[in-house]
Design a protein that fits this description.
Blueprint lengths: L1 H14 L6 E4 L10 H10 L5 E4 L6 E3 L14 E3 L10 E4 L12 E2 L6 E3 L2 E3 L6 E3 L6 E3 L2 E2 L15 E5 L4 E3 L8 E2 L5 E5 L5 E3 L2 E2 L16 E5 L3
Parallel strand pairs: 1-2, 2-4, 3-5, 4-7, 5-8, 6-9, 7-10, 8-11, 9-12, 10-13, 11-14, 12-15, 13-16, 14-17, 15-18
């Protein structure tokens, strides 16, 4: 009898467990099969940490959403735009087709312990990455308010490049963790939480490490507070 109940218990445990999945983006289209939008939706429906990767054919591609992208809400999920493994972004997100009235961020994170790695994100109406409600989010190796070269300013009159909250991390101790942030928006990094880490980023300095971005307006590199 004890062995019977043990087997039943194991069956229930397995049926309630989550499985990690990898969703590969194969299309630069805004919608449809293989799009980033589809990958975000599928990851949200799959409990547990997932990976959103990009196919080799996506290297150098520009994704231009027409409506706001779905929120990254699946805890522990990572979006990785480094296709060739050199630590730099190979895929860019461009929000220039979104109307200002959408008030949309490039990527919004509400899931715990998610990672956004090696994406170039620019020209969204508000923030390029909003992780205020995603505790433990890591943002590493990204180019913000600049394109894939990491050398040209590319921004709208948005509020902040990156907004972070409790226990979030922007950058880190390793070279591959470094974010390159053009302060073309009002604020490069807006920290509104406790226990966050900001380290090793180049703010106002292009990916070459030389000179500064030729931005057309002044901004604040890092702002700490609730506004």
């Amino acid at each position: 009898m004890s062995r019977y109940w043990l087997a039943v218990g194991a069956l229930v445990l397995l049926s309630g467990s989550s499985r990690s999945s990898t969703f590969t983006v194969t299309s630069a289209a805004d919608v449809g099969r293989g799009s980033l939008r589809e990958a975000l939706v599928r990851a949200a429906k799959n409990p547990g940490p997932d990976a959103i990767l990009f196919a080799p054919s996506m290297a150098g591609q520009l994704i231009r959403p027409v409506t706001p992208l779905p929120t990254l809400r699946d805890a522990g999920t990572e979006i990785n735009g480094d296709i060739d493994g050199n630590g730099a972004p190979d895929v860019a997100l461009d929000g220039s087709l979104l109307l200002p009235s959408w008030a949309a961020s490039g990527l919004r994170v509400t899931g715990d312990d998610c990672t956004i790695r090696a994406l170039a994100i620019s020209r969204f109406p508000t923030d390029q990455i909003d992780a205020l409600d995603g505790p433990g989010t890591k943002i590493v190796g990204c180019y913000i308010n600049t394109g894939l070269s990491g050398t040209q300013a590319s921004f709208r009159a948005s509020e902040a490049g990156i907004v972070i909250g409790d226990s979030d991390q922007v950058g880190g101790p390793n070279e591959g963790d470094r974010n390159v942030i053009c302060v073309g928006s009002a604020i490069g990094i807006w920290m509104m939480g406790k226990g966050a880490l900001i380290a090793g980023n180049w703010i106002g300095v292009p990916a070459t490490g030389q000179g500064t971005f030729a931005a057309t307006r002044e901004g604040t590199g890092v702002w700490i507070g609730s506004g």
